[in-house]
Amino acid sequence: MSEEEDQSWEDVIKDVTPMAPKKVVLTPPKRFKYSVQKMQTVAAKPMKHTLQLNGTSDIDRRTFERLKRGELPVEGVLDLHHQTEDKAYEMVRRFVTESYLGGKRCVIIITGKGLHQQDEFAPRGCLKTRVPQWLQSDELKSLILTYVHPRENQGGEGALMLLLRRRRD
Prior knowledge:
Layout: H1 3-13, H2 61-68, E1 76-79, H3 85-101, E2 106-110, H4 126-135, H5 138-141, E3 144-148, E4 159-164
Helix pairs in contact: 3-4
């Protein structure tokens, strides 16, 4: 700037009084708590009823017949085709638990029939035999009333139709 501009600036600011400095308190930023959403679980109560294919120990005959005829609305389907045994187990456990907690009554788990197994040394229909075994665990057995093979148009021998207990809080 020139001398003339400096003088003009000085004339402008001569009556200005500086403000008192503010005391600034720096607070550390709030830490956000990141929480991984945990899957809800249900307390496993040992059940005295026997859970088996076409078993009717805890339901009335009319409800069981409606289930077998496919008259109950299917509220959820889990397809296990092309899944490994470990991943399928976790999927079944989660599906049954979430279905129960969601108030669903009738769900289908599609295991497949195991007819198109690529590996000639692998057992045929591994998931078809394992899923009913998994349903016998205390954790899942306490949520299920019974299960049947659905009608052919719903999966037939390659699927299981489960009737879940009503959720009572």
